[in-house]
Specification:
This protein is α/β, with parallel strands linked by helices and 320 residues long. The chain folds into two domains: 197 residues, TIM Barrel (Alpha-Beta Barrel), CATH 3.20.20; 67 residues, no CATH class. It is 41% helix and 15% strand. The chain is built from 14 helices and eleven strands. The protein has an eight-stranded parallel beta sheet. It has a three-stranded antiparallel beta sheet with strand order 7-11-10, with no helix packed on it. Helix 8 crosses helix 14. The radius of gyration is 19 Å and the shape is globular.
Length: 320
């Protein structure tokens, strides 16, 4: 069964911008929403007062719908949810935690709730928790990832078969053709992160953006599986991790090397050697930094062209 994501969120296109740490501030969210998608503010790297500021600036800059992405393991989660209530945020994407904990509270205050999952098991749990929609994110995605390592191409039809909720595909999607493929697999829309990380409105450091658009095949890797599986660009920090792994370390040794603020150092401060450079495999497909609105337009134009090509070239499918 197909669901209308555009009606669920009140947007023009079934395209969501991922709420990424150190990347997804109010400027990026507003730019995507103004272009017809759904922009998300990424609360994961924000103190509560900073989040409130971003929400208020987004409200002042657009009348279009936007949302907030909230990792549920956030240390100040009670304060964050109080801000969501007080600022009357209408759309919240939750991740990294049990959706049963906060979904009833959010629904009680009129919030549309979407939960991010990496497996069929957690998709079912999210549905049981009463969420309005699910983001199913495959192994290709950047940043924190699922332990199951299920690819998007396998995960989307599996989740579609398991739950009857609006389904948003994520992980390895940056083009219109990929968007169309995800929807053919059973998704009702897509969420894109890496492509918007390399946008003009992204709050990431210019060094990081340039590193992203320089990614080639094999330049990203999923690591840190003992803590939280994370896809990063290979750099000096990654090589230091590899040296540690060869000694068969325990979790505490890995945590000591990781330390605090590695993602901030890499993404926000632009330290390409010592920072944790989180990005998805799909970065190998693009090589420019564009305005977020242009990215939305390019994706939707390619999506529509691809759809028309498939529908009009029926002679290619005379075996059907």
């Amino acid at each position: 069964m197909k669901h209308d994501i555009t009606k669920l969120f009140g947007i023009d296109y079934p395209l969501v911008q991922g709420g990424m740490v150190w990347v997804s501030g109010w400027r990026l969210a507003v730019a995507v929403s103004e272009a017809g998608g759904l922009g998300l503010i990424g609360a994961g790297s924000m103190y509560p007062d900073v989040l409130r500021e971003h929400i208020r600036k987004a409200k002042a800059a657009t009348r279009k719908p936007f949302g907030v992405n909230i990792p549920l393991l956030y240390p100040d989660i009670d304060e964050i949810m109080r801000i969501i209530k007080e600022e009357e945020v209408k759309i919240v994407f939750t991740s990294a935690g049990n959706p049963k904990t906060w979904t009833p509270f959010l629904k009680e205050h009129g919030v549309t709730v979407v939960h991010v999952v990496s497996s069929v098991k957690f998709a079912r749990k999210a549905a049981e928790a009463g969420v309005d929609a699910i983001v199913a994110e495959g192994f290709e995605a950047g940043g924190h990832n699922g332990r199951e390592e299920t690819t998007t191409m396998v995960l989307i039809p599996a989740v579609r078969q398991a739950v009857n909720l609006p389904l948003i595909a994520a992980g390895g999607i940056a083009t219109g053709r990929q968007m169309l493929a995800a929807m053919i697999l059973g998704a009702d829309g897509v969420q894109m992160g890496s492509r918007f990380a390399a946008s003009e409105e992204s709050s990431a450091h210019e060094n990081f953006k340039k590193a992203v658009i320089s990614v080639s095949e094999g330049d990203t890797v999923l690591t840190l599986k003992e803590i939280v599986p994370t896809r990063i660009i290979k750099n000096k920090f990654y090589e230091e991790l590899q040296k540690i792994y060869r000694t068969k370390p325990d979790t505490e040794q890995i945590k000591r090397l990781l330390g605090r603020g590695r993602a901030k150092k890499g993404i926000f401060e632009g330290d390409l050697e010592e920072g944790e450079l989180e990005i998805g495999q799909v970065a190998m497909l693009f090589d420019d930094i564009l305005p977020a609105g242009q990215i939305v337009k390019n994706v939707m134009d390619e999506f529509c062209r691809s759809y028309q090509e498939i529908c009009s070239n029926n002679e290619n499918f005379d075996f059907c």
